[in-house]
Amino acid sequence: MGGKKWKRPRHSVLITSLVIGLPVLALSIAALMSNARLFILTLMNGLTLAALYFLVASGFTLIFGLMRNVNLAHGSLFLLGGYVGYSVGDLTGSWFAAIAAGFITVALAGLLLQILVFRYMDGQELRQTLVTIGLSIVLADIYMWIWGGDTYQFDPPEWMLFPVPMPIINAYPAFRLLVLLSAIIIGVGLWLFLNRTSIGAMIRAGVDDKRMLSASGVNVQRVFAVTFALGAGLAGLAGVIGGTALSIAPGEDVRYLLASLIVVIVGGMGSITGAVIGALLIGIAETMGMAYAPTYGVVFTFIIMVVVLALRPQGIMGKKA
Q1: Is residue 178 part of a domain?
Q2: Is 277 a domain residue?
Q3: In angstroms, rounded to a whole number, what is the distance separating the alpha carbons of residues 320 and 314?
Q4: Parts of the chain with a pLDDT under 50
Q5: Sign of CA dihedral 256, 73, 252, 236
Q6: Would residue 220 count as lying in a domain?
Q7: What Gene Ontology terms for biological process does this UniProt record contain (predicted)?
Q8: CA angle, 243 as apex, 239 and 249 as ends, to 5°?
Q9: How many angstroms separate the CA atoms of 49 and 136, rounded?
Q10: What is the pLDDT of residues 61-71, one digit of tens each?
Q11: Residue 276 in contact with residue 265, Cβ under 8 Å?
Q12: N or C, which end of the chain is more exposed by having fewer CB within 10 Å?
């Protein structure tokens, strides 16, 4: 007895998928039979929210999941992108200028954060956590000082506002479908970047063994700075898109930081595919909960997280440490 160790099932991904998937499938069929229009409309809204969560969490996956930098100011970067994008869009009248400004400004902020903060706290997770929590509090006050406590919402170009004909629900806003499409394109692009390019190979090698990569002549700090800037820029991009699809207001930084954490934990640290799966599960669970059980809707998200952690602690697509 003492010499044997209990081992987790080798097919834990399949088991986790079945434990989560079968009840969801049964409830979905029942909801579809009861009110097909409500179910499909809620499902589409869930997919749109999942796309937005993925855009935020994809950057968090690069910074926290892949580089192991505990950046709890990631939500503040999201909010910064939204505020800067709104200001530039209001000044220029161009939504695309707002997108560019949100991405570039936050990418530069992330670059500075990596160079001035994380570079000197490599591997010190507790210090990173405390410093970024403090930074997020300071930034929240600065945002309040500059932009006030108002709620802001972007207006996309008029050609994005037309209704797209769909069966059963009659029509669905084109912009929300474009958000879903942009998340798919960015997700595929990130996967190809990390798995099919030499820079992606250097990033993964640097995470596994920085000294060996540095000995081969690669500037590890430069690679990590570029990766951090990309992850932060994606948060800024999501801030503009989120401000268009929903809104930007004080407190949204905490909401999207928590969503990103849950998505990365459920999907698996450092996995773009896992971030996709996690965002889908959390986004759809949140909207379905709001539609069918608004009082207990938030519980669904935590049930998914508890089940995944119980059956597969490293996340659905995560690797064992």
Answers
A1: yes
A2: no
A3: 6
A4: 1-10
A5: negative
A6: yes
A7: amino acid transport
A8: 90
A9: 24
A10: 888 766 778 88
A11: no
A12: N
Separation between Cα atoms, residue 313 and residue 86, nearest integer Å: 39
Distance (Å) of CA 42 to CA 32, 36, 46: 11, 10, 6
Q: How far is CA 231 from the centre of its chain?
A: 10
Q: What are phi and psi of 152, to 5 degrees?
A: -115, 145
Distance CA 13, CA 213 (A): 32
Indicate the residue type of 70: V
Contacts of 253 (CB under 8 A, 6+ apart): 75, 76, 78, 79, 136, 139, 140
How much is the pLDDT for 4? 45
The pLDDT value given to residue 227:
86
Question: DSSP letters along 65-127, please?
Answer: IIT----TTHHHHHHHHHHHHHHHHHHH--HHHHHHHHHHHHHHHHHHHHHHTGGGSTT-HHH
- Separation between Cα atoms, residue 225 and residue 141, nearest integer Å: 26
Instruction: Give the closest residue to 146 by CA, choosing from 188, 202, 205, 86.
Output: 86
Residue 98 CA to its chain's centroid (Å): 20
Q: Kindly state whether residue 231 falls inside one of the protein's structural domains.
A: yes
Tokens standing for 216? 């081969």
Full residue range of the structural domain in which residue 176 is found: 37-156+165-250
Instruction: Give the span between the Cα atoms of 158 and 178, in whole angstroms.
Output: 13
Q: How far apart are CA 86 and CA 80, in angstroms?
A: 10
d(CA 26, CA 6) in angstroms, rounded, equals 32
Is this model's pTM higher than 0.85 or not?
A: yes
Q: Is the Cβ–Cβ distance between 129 and 70 less than 8 Å?
A: yes
CA 13 to chain centre: 21
What size, in residues, is the chain?
A: 321
Count how many domains the chain has: 1
3-state SS, residue 270:
coil
| 171, containing H or E segment | strand 170-173
